[in-house]
Specification:
The protein contains 9 helices and 9 strands. With 298 residues, the chain is α+β, with helices and mostly antiparallel strands. The longest helix has 18 residues, at 99-116.
């Protein structure tokens, strides 16, 4: 792969790791870029993501796709390669997240959802066809039964344009870059048709888990949620939510993360992953909610 990238006039190539996709950095025409190696998406889906980003970047601060040798997406061997500007901003672990950061994260998501309303022309799949859903179906019967029940509940919800549309799909604090209080949204690989509430649930879900899944801090994250939603509503009064359903979307994300961790070798699991597995299995087995309260925002 390195030699192929050099043939595209990309140099100084380094690994940035990545999770579902391998991520590299490099230099192209003297500018720093990020390269994503994709195996879970089709060419059509990836081009739809690029098209969406190109339009969204005209109205807000999101990572910009770039062309390499005249192409946004290049097929090579078993991979699709897509290319993005490298942002000179900070990752979440390089600073302490403040309520202002959460407010601005909510504001950015509100802008994304407002743009997405009635955007049905993009060739992206819905939540039931996400690659992680297939991973869940490879787990034991109890987990598959929980998935089936969760999807049945979600399927029964109203798919009206102000509730349901094209969402980020992976909107957590690690997919934001920070410059003081400003944020820039990255990684739209999970762009999908789903309920807008799911993006909000994902953001809060990982903050609730924090550094210890067995020690969830509800009160602190209720405050985060309120600041996040104030930011959201400062720019978007159009999308609507049934917040009583947020625990359903917590559960969907919980199952997807459980399936992803299950793909890792047991020997490589750290304390956090082991605690998360224990928490999830206990909650599913005992029919417990992810958190024992319902979030709400008027």
């Amino acid at each position: 792969m390195i030699e192929y990238l050099k043939s595209l006039n990309i140099y100084d190539i380094k690994s940035l790791k990545g999770f579902h996709n391998q991520i590299l950095s490099g230099l192209y025409q003297g500018k720093e870029i990020v390269i994503r190696l994709i195996q879970r998406r089709s060419f059509e889906e990836t081009m739809a993501e690029i098209s969406y980003l190109n339009q969204l970047s005209k109205i807000m601060n999101v990572v910009k796709a770039i062309q390499i040798e005249g192409s946004y997406v290049i097929e090579h061997q078993d991979y699709l390669l897509s290319f993005y500007e490298k942002l000179h901003m900070k990752h979440w672990y390089e600073l302490s997240l403040t309520m202002k950061h959460h407010f601005n994260a909510g504001k950015a998501l509100g802008q994304i959802h407002l743009f997405s309303m009635n955007q049905n022309q993009y060739s992206r799949k819905d939540y039931k066809k996400h690659p992680d859903i297939q991973l869940i179906n490879e787990l034991d019967p109890m987990i598959k039964t929980e998935l089936k029940k969760t999807l049945k509940t979600i399927d029964s919800m109203k798919k009206e344009p102000n509730y349901y549309g094209l969402i980020h799909g992976d909107y957590l604090y690690s997919n934001l870059m920070y410059d003081k209080d400003k944020v820039c949204v990255i990684d739209f690989d999970d762009l999908e048709y789903n309920y807008y509430l799911y993006d909000i649930a994902v953001y809060i879900f990982y903050l609730l888990l924090g550094g210890d899944p067995m020690d969830i801090d509800l009160l602190a994250n209720l405050e985060v949620f309120n600041h996040f939603m104030r930011g959201y509503r400062s720019v978007n009064q159009e999308t609507q939510f049934d917040f009583k359903d947020i625990n359903i979307f917590f559960r969907l994300r919980q199952l997807k993360l459980l399936a992803t961790i299950n793909q890792l070798p047991i020997i490589s699991l750290g304390t956090w992953q082991k605690k998360y597995i224990d928490l999830s299995i206990k909650q599913i087995k005992n029919h417990e909610k992810f958190v024992p309260i319902d979030f709400n925002y008027e």
